[in-house]
TrEMBL record:
Superkingdom field: Eukaryota
Residues covered by region (Disordered): 1-20
Residue ranges constituting the BTB domain according to the UniProt record: 28-101
Protein name (Swiss-Prot/TrEMBL): BTB domain-containing protein
InterPro entries linked to this entry: BTB/POZ_dom, SKP1/BTB/POZ_sf
Pfam families, per database record: BTB
Lineage, top ranks: Eukaryota, Fungi, Dikarya, Basidiomycota, Agaricomycotina
Amino acid sequence: MGEDRPIGPSKQPETPSTRHSKYYFDDQQSVFLVENTFFKVHRYYLTRESEVFRTMFSCPSSEHGQEGVDDSKPIHLPGVTTRQFEALLDFFYGGQLQRSIQVERPSSEAIPVTTNSAKKSSKGKKGIRTQLPSYEAKAQTAQSITFHATDVPQLFDLLSISTFYDFGLAREYAIRAIEANGGLDPIDKIYYANQCDIPEWLFTAYKELCQRSDPLEASEAERIGLTTAILVAKAREQIIRDQGCHRCVHRPMIWGSEEEEAGPVDAIVNSVFFDKEN
């Protein structure tokens, strides 16, 4: 008789185990000190969305030990306020912003969003109202979001910290959400356009400021800077002189019905604020 053999499938050589490329999370937490407040949060969103934080966490430990392990050795975030860090964490974890947002998906063209991995787009159906389902969806649908008035300061906080630490998706969401809110004060738009590098906000803000009935207050001039305040005064004087009356300053243009008057004001704003030879 032949040699007995084991019954059943033959044993295959073992394949080495690997970590899943998408669903293997670094769940390590770190302690941050912002102003006088400790925060203990996961590193995951911070490292995924910001090259600054990826670099920070990849640095070797100092001779005094690793920072962020507990309250005695926190990671300091200078130049950041508690409110700003809260706004960033609320964005990641779905807190204040999530509770106050309703989305009405537009029936027109899709809204493109650039993420770290790919460009995405979304095209919804008219009349569908829902809560934002996820972190990525917030930036994708921000142009059609309605906010409570109390949310707007938090959006500016989110814009500031996301610009400072290069959180691209959070920054894009904040910009689109602020634009969707409408009726923003031109002083705020000028301030944040300069602080957060959003040049596309400047023209309409300058124009609105030059056409409003009230001159600049001292606090407003301080906020936008002396040079800009001088240029606003210069543009207002040119509008009055070139049109020969106060009508264009005291009554802003009504787009569509007075298009013939929009050209000169646009030209003055462009000449005063954007002509490098001026």
